[in-house]
Amino acid sequence: MMTADLSLFHQTIIERMNALVAFLAPDGTILFWNVAAGQITGYPAGEVIGGSWIWKKLYPDPVYRKEITKMITNVIEEQAYLRNFETRIITGLGSEKYISWNTSEVRSPGGSITGYVAVGVDITDKVQNKRQLREREELFHGITSAAYNGIILLDEHSIITYWNPAAERIFFYHKQEAKGINVIDLLAPETARTQWQSVLTKTGSHELDARRKDGSLISAELNISWVMIKNRPHTIVIIRDMTEQKRSESQMRLLSTIVQTSQEAIVSISGSGTILSWNKAAEEMTGIPEESALDAPILDLIKLKDGEERIAEAISQSNHAVISAILPDRRGMEHDVIISVAPLSGGEGFSLLIRDITEVKKAQRTMIAYIREATARLKMPVEVVRENIGDILGMFYDDTIDCDAAALRLKVQMTHLAQIAETIRELNAALTGEGTDIPKAYEKFLLE
Fold first, then answer.
1. Which DSSP symbol is given to 242?
2. What's the sign of the alpha-carbon dihedral 3, 9, 15, 20?
3. What number of other Cβ atoms are within 10 A of residue 327's Cβ?
4. Which residues pair with 278 in a beta bridge?
5. Which of the residues 35, 178, 354, 421 has an alpha carbon 20 to 30 A from that of 108?
6. Which pLDDT does position 200 carry in this prediction?
7. pLDDT of residue 233
8. What φ, ψ does residue 182 adopt, rounded to 5°?
9. What is the pLDDT at residue 5?
10. Of 28, 64, 67, 68, which is closest to residue 49 (Cα–Cα)?
């Protein structure tokens, strides 16, 4: 019976096939089991032929076996064929393999079913490759979906084939809007199309402007790399939005310029009290160059005649403090200074702003001396005028008035009053800043 039924096949060829070939009786008994079947399953023909237990061995999970059996039964009842029906088996060595089955009925000349032919192809490598590819794709999508930077995949014509969530956030285009569009048409400003075309032909990092959906422009850093996908060249573009960084860099440059050109010494120090920055004014005020100041303890360089302990106290307690003191420099000069100590934001250290008020103090002392001198100069003519007017009034009261003598004395008082008025004018100009300087005569007198 078996020989007659197998006469449809070239038995020698079947034995040498790389695929599992089995012939089953209608009741499921194995009548034929080729060499490849034994190699694939780990159960040789001598053990298998004549029984039907092999299916429980290949499908040890009863639930899974029931599902497979039900599907096969349905196919048999419908007199159909199984084509590329994939199942998972457990071999005699305990390993897992995937088999793609193709089965058909074998009928006698009278039309009755005499058995079934099952051909199984070991597709384990194919399934594992698919699984690995799927896992890599899931990993790729997971990484790119979580990435902060925009990730775009382009085909050989610069058409967008992949557009990650960060690209959506940066450019405001949903992936359905971006995919299938030429990246230059989508993102390149009209004035930068040539630059974009050039950049996409090079690997590496490039900075250029990019256009968002709303028409606004951003500063973008593009990292270009090439990859082969399904034997076709593709371009991976990783885009970083540099707008905020550029703005921050610009602000930092501006702040640095302000700090370096400030006439006030500006010093930043770490929480431990070492110097982090030291501007030009600090160099000029102390006579200590920046390279000598950096990383040095602040209290080793700022030696005050009075107030040094208040700096240490402010630093140790992270407090704000305003300190008035005298700061000697390395040239032997002394500076009247006001030092403002303030904690840096984030608690990462402190800033010291040192204002040299030496000239202000000198001007204050000069002004005070000038006011005293002006007051003294006013006092004498005022007293003289008061006494002379008193004398003239006495003449009127005594009826001894001599008009010529009185007129002469009043004329003298006019001279005194003019002197008083001029002194008051000069004093007023000095106090209100209307004059350019203290009058030279007074300045010379005060500075002697």
1. -
2. negative
3. 22
4. 267
5. 35
6. 92
7. 92
8. -65, 130
9. 47
10. 28
- Using CA atoms, how far apart are residues 351 and 289, in angstroms rounded to an integer? 18
Query: What does the pLDDT read at residue 3?
Result: 47
Could you write out the DSSP letters of every residue in 240-287? EE-HHHHHHHHHHHHHHHHHHH-SSEEEEE-TTSBEEEE-HHHHHHH-
Give Cβ neighbours of residue 38 (< 8 Å, ≥ 6 apart).
44, 45, 48
- pLDDT for res 258: 73
Q: Per-residue DSSP letters for 182-219?
A: BHHHHH--GGGHHHHHHHTTS-EEEEEEEE-TTS-EEE
pTM score of the predicted model: 0.47
Taking the C-alpha atoms of residue 251 and residue 45, their distance in angstroms, rounded to an integer, is 82
pLDDT of 79: 58
Give the DSSP H or E segment for 97: strand 96-107
Under DSSP, is residue 110 helix (H, G, I), strand (E, B) or coil? coil
Residue 300's pLDDT is 79
Determine the average pLDDT of the residues in 39-68.
90
Q: How far is CA 382 from the centre of its chain?
A: 75
| Non-local CB neighbours of 105 within 8 Å, separated by 6+ positions | 76, 79, 113, 115, 116, 117
What's the token pair of residue 85?
């029906």
The token duo for 107 is: 């009928």
Q: Dihedral through CA 361, CA 367, CA 373, CA 376, nearest 10?
A: -110
